[in-house]
Model the fold of this input.
Amino acid sequence: MHVAIEARGLGKSFGTVRAVDGLDLSIESGRIYGFLGPNGSGKSTTLRMLCGLLRPSAGEIRVLDYAIPAQSEALRRRMGYMTQSFSLYGDLSVAENLRFMATIYGLSGSVRRARIADLLQDLDLDALARQRAATLSGGQRQRLALAAATLHRPGLLLLDEPTSAVDPQSRRNFWEILFALSGEGTTILVSTHYMDEAERCHGLAILDAGRLAAEGSPRSLKADIGAAVIEVLADDPQAARRALVDLEQLDSMTRLGAAIRLLLDADADTALRAVRAALAGASVSARVTPTEASLEDVFVVATRKTKAA
Amino acid sequence: MGALTGSSRRILAIAGKEVWQLARDRLTFGMIVGIPLLQMALFGYAINTDVRHLHAGVANLSGSQRSLELVADAQASQVVDIVAQAGSAEALLDLMRRGRAQIGIYLPPDFDRRLAQGRTTAASLFVDGSDPIVLAAARGLAQLGVPAAGPAVFELRNFYNPERRTAVNIVPALMGVILTMTMVLFTSIAIVRERERGNLELLITTPVRTPELMLGKVLPYVGIGLIQVTLVLWAGRWLFAVPVNGSLLDVYLAALVFIVASLTLGLLISTFAQTQFQSMQLTFFVFLPSILLSGFMFPFDGMPQAARVIAEVLPLTHFIRLIRGIMLRAADIGDLQGDIRALGLFSVAALALAIARFRKRLD
Done:
């Protein structure tokens, strides 16, 4: 498989703050690759360094075989970028915005007309073509921004928290379009702090405080979590909580409705025994079942490890 | 050739987008027409160095026929309006101290006798000399009623402005002041607004080059500047009867060179300002010295050396020389090459600096 993005020892400091610290990345082309992390974890900074918007303080980057930031201008013809906040022109209509961006990307005449017509149809923006961008809903704006970023059929698409202002239905539609683009061979990099969005990526990097906390496909990350996940359904959740809070191997305890979800730094059997013993000791009756790890669990475990390191 | 057409297409795309946005921005559009007309009306009528109707107080202790005639003459000159009478020199000075009068006319009890003697001055003019323009007006008033003391040495001949109207001098220069304000402000804000709204973060990830972006942004404002020139010429003609003695083509050529210089200055400011408010502050930082030092308010040659050196850097100084030369003295643009060259040099330097300072990066 061909590698679209390669970064070695990538770092970026703003004054004394290390926003990104010693990041190694290798991303295969044609895949959807996600950066998952809380605000301030270095997702946007990394994306911006990969497309030459920020100069790295340390490390080397190659994107689509261009050395970045030296060859950023050449890369810009072959990449599309969606900024975190809407950055097209609110006082221009949907069609005017697309015509403008198409011309900037060097399209003209019948090619430009055809691309715009196709995108308007594919992204369900046909009926909105004459509407001013400022009056669009969050989901409509995202589709317009995506249309603008893909007008020139880029080989690489960078999306900085693309669906942060979008309802779940629009988010699902948006991802359908991303999968279609990926199917045509476009490499897509997306930053997010939504677990459901991260779940859809082929590959995932979990970032925490500028460091790579874990990397892999969502499936392998969950399989290799290295911790036990246990669900406790108790008659008296408060009592169960009190009984479990002092467990030695406990990583995290989360209430999910009536259930309590536990993350323990142990193998499944040991964890199960410890939980049952603690509940029995406090004479709390509960149903205790081992369960599959979620991406959120992976995230919790991974970020705890970087904090300990 | 392919690269060139791609480049010019991008410039036109940015310019076209700018025009669309302007056409939809009613406030800015109104300012393009409103600022020149409003400023013409304000400054054209208000700025008047040929002062009339200064408030004067009179202390006539003589009361003779000739003293009354002199006061009537002063009133008739329209330089002063007599607003108060006083019974003594002290009372007259008191009027001035309280700000009721800027000029005091004092006629002593023995006015007629002094006049007959002809050796000492017969009467006194008290002047609030803190305003030099009032002082100059009073000097003119002091000539009143004085019997010819022999032939004058100089005969003053007034060229280019025989009716001594300030508007003739102010209006052409006002064109420059208006263009400075609007052109510098519009361009600096036009770029900084894109930065504030996040448009620039997107634009710098596209293949658009910095010079293309800058040229595309300022191109529409060249047209707007020429519209403003036309407005000022038209209003100057109809409101103030300011003539265009030189060639109209030369007026537009000089204006075009000055507009370009102002636009590049706006671009340069935009590379320093992060917010529209900052670019407004920076614009006024340039605007104030432009008004005070360019020769718009005070004759250039009368200013101290240091002020003149600063003024030579300001585009408005050169434009005021050009436009007064062409409009009032019917000078040919060829006679004023030095100022054209100075504006050209300024534009090239400011544009080069702006392009060098603008980064297609966020850090």
